[in-house]
Design goal:
The chain contains four helices and five strands, in the order αβαβββααβ. With about 100 residues, it is α/β, with parallel strands linked by helices. It has a three-stranded parallel sheet with strand order 1-4-5, with no helix packed on it. The longest helix has 10 residues, at about 80-85.
Length: about 100
């Protein structure tokens, strides 16, 4: 008997989305905010191969975790705070900057 993958493997699932935001100084903040990469912030459509038998459905997946590489002055800036809240209001956050925590 030939055993096929679908007989013993669960359907694919989309994994968690993690975002890394690097903003080393306040001078870097305006270009970060103006970047076209953020024109359509998450949740964004992500193809999930196991979403349907045809593989045509899309799921919206928002980042579950945001990693921040930024000094305290950037983290406390109102523009940065508003930007991060707009990306993923329900995400967990980890600050990975020396001297901040």
């Amino acid at each position: 008997k030939v055993v096929r993958a679908e007989e013993c493997v669960s359907p694919s699932e989309a994994g968690a989305v993690v975002g890394i935001i690097a903003c080393p100084t306040l001078r870097h903040l305006p270009p970060l905010l103006a970047s076209p990469l953020w024109a359509a912030p998450p949740p964004r459509p992500v193809r999930c191969p196991g979403a349907s038998k045809e593989g045509t459905e899309e799921e919206k997946i928002a980042p579950a975790l945001l990693l921040h590489l930024a000094p305290l002055e950037v983290l406390l800036d109102a523009r940065y705070s508003a930007f991060v809240r707009g990306l993923a209001p329900d995400a967990k956050h980890i600050v990975l900057s020396a001297g901040v925590c």
